[in-house]
Amino acid sequence: MITTADETLLRRAIGIAAAAIAHGDAPYGSLLAGPDGTVLAEAHNTVRRDNDISAHPELKLARWAARELDPGTAARSTMYTSCQPCGMCAGGLVRSGIGRVVYALSTEQLVELNPQSGAWPTVVQDGPALFDEARGPIDAYYRPS
Q1: Residue 36 is part of which domain span?
Q2: Cβ–Cβ under 8 Å, residues 102 and 84
Q3: Rounded Cα distance, 78 and 2, in Å
Q4: Euclidean distance between CA atoms 44 and 54, whole angstroms
Q5: Residue limits of the CMP/dCMP-type deaminase domain (predicted)?
Q6: How far apart (Å, rounded) are the C-alpha atoms in residues 140 and 26?
Q7: How many structural domains are present in the chain?
Q8: 145: confidence class by pLDDT, cuts 50, 70, 90
Q9: Max CA-CA distance within the chain?
Q10: Entry pTM
Q11: Which of 20, 30, 71, 104 lies 20 to 30 A from 56 at CA?
Q12: What CATH code is carried by the domain that includes residue 62?
């Protein structure tokens, strides 16, 4: 359930997205709020400027949270973001331990507004293969003698 406090912080994330345009960046913004609602960090998309496909604000903040927050604080923190996190960012969010995400536009709404946003090709994946060989490093790391 989205509260009035959530809406206030979500509007701030939308404002970060709008401000990104003035820097020549794509219009995506996010912020991370701690358990008490205090803004801990903010970021916007810098994919083009940084020439880095991973420079989405959600992933930047997920990495920040994983580095800077203890697991309990991360679990009680909320990310507010102008658009629903993509698959790459969603994976980072899971691993960061952030407990909640509140977003403004869904992926479907974004694609409706900008069809190019949904024009990603699929990548062929073949496997699994070479189980006995591949398990060696895994066993060595997770089951040391």
Answers
A1: 4-142
A2: no
A3: 12
A4: 12
A5: 4-121
A6: 43
A7: 1
A8: low
A9: 56
A10: 0.92
A11: 71
A12: 3.40.140.10
